[in-house]
Every structure is written in C-alpha cells, then in structure tokens.
UniProtKB/TrEMBL annotation:
This is Cytochrome C556. InterPro entries: Cyt_c/b562 (IPR010980), Cyt_c_II (IPR002321), Cyt_c_prime (IPR012127), Cyt_c_prime_subgr (IPR015984). Keywords: Electron transport, Heme, Iron, Metal-binding, Signal, Transport. Pfam families: Cytochrom_C_2. Residues 1-22 form the signal peptide.
Length: 147
C-alpha cells in the first residue's frame, strides 16, 4: 500500500510540474535557457582565468548544459513571442529564422565537440571558451537587442 502511495505521489508530482512547465511563456523558457548557458560560460571562465581550480566535472556539466540548451533554444521563438516578459530577442530572429537556427546548432555542435574530448586543464578550458565565446558573440550581435 505504501509503495502505491509513493508511486501515485511521484506521478502526480510529475504531472503538476509538467503543467507548470507547459504554462511558461516561451520568452521565459528561452530566458532561463540563456541564463543557464551564461552560468555555464561563467563557470568555464572562472576556471580559464584561474579564479577556480580545474574540475573536470564542472567543465563537463557546463558543456552539457550549453549543448542541450543551444539545441532546444530555437524552438522557443514561435510567432507571437516577439515581445513580452522583457524579451531581448531582436526582430532578426523571426526574419532570419533559418540562419538563427543554424547559429544555435553551431554552438551546440561546438559544445558537443568539446564534450567529446573534455578539456583536461585550465589552458584547454581557455581555448574552449574562445571557441564557444566567438559563436555566442556572433549570435548576440545580430539577434539580441542592445539595452
């Protein structure tokens, strides 16, 4: 009986979380994805600068987060989500969606490539930051509003 109660509780909890997630506006979802990428880049940057010691698990988690979010990111820009929730998305996202998607895929591919051979030291993380940062900066120049 107790096992059934626990299982039922877990199922209901998942359903409630799914309902909450489904209600989130795409602007909020994409902002959260960008925050996660930014935090991951920050973690990598701290290692690259020597502010934090090299930690392979931190590097791997950061690269996984960047890759996962970059793959899902373009799907969070449906028509009608051009404004609201203090979005910083530029109109160019919707005007050049194929190009935008390709740049997001490029970031994901770069993260996946680095993940396949996780940088082994501070210098490697610095090189990874340069590769990822160039892709991030290129996209931000065109597809993010300057505030």
């Amino acid at each position: 009986m107790r096992l059934k109660s626990l299982a039922l509780g877990a199922v209901l909890g998942c359903l409630c979380l799914s309902a909450v997630s489904a209600q989130e506006e795409p602007q909020v979802v994409r902002q959260n994805q960008m925050k996660a990428i930014g935090q991951s880049m920050g973690a990598l940057g701290a290692i690259a600068k020597g502010e934090k010691p090299y930690d392979a698990a931190v590097v791997q988690t950061a690269l996984e987060t960047i890759g996962t979010n970059a793959k899902a990111f373009p799907d969070q820009f449906p028509a009608g989500s051009e404004s609201g929730s203090e979005t910083e998305a530029a109109p160019a996202v919707w005007e050049k969606m194929d190009e935008f998607r390709a740049k997001s895929e490029k970031l994901a591919a770069e993260a996946d490539k680095l993940l396949a051979s996780v940088p082994a030291d501070q210098a490697g993380v610095g090189a990874a930051m340069k590769a990822l940062g160039a892709t991030c900066g290129d996209c931000h120049e065109t597809y993010r509003l300057k505030r």
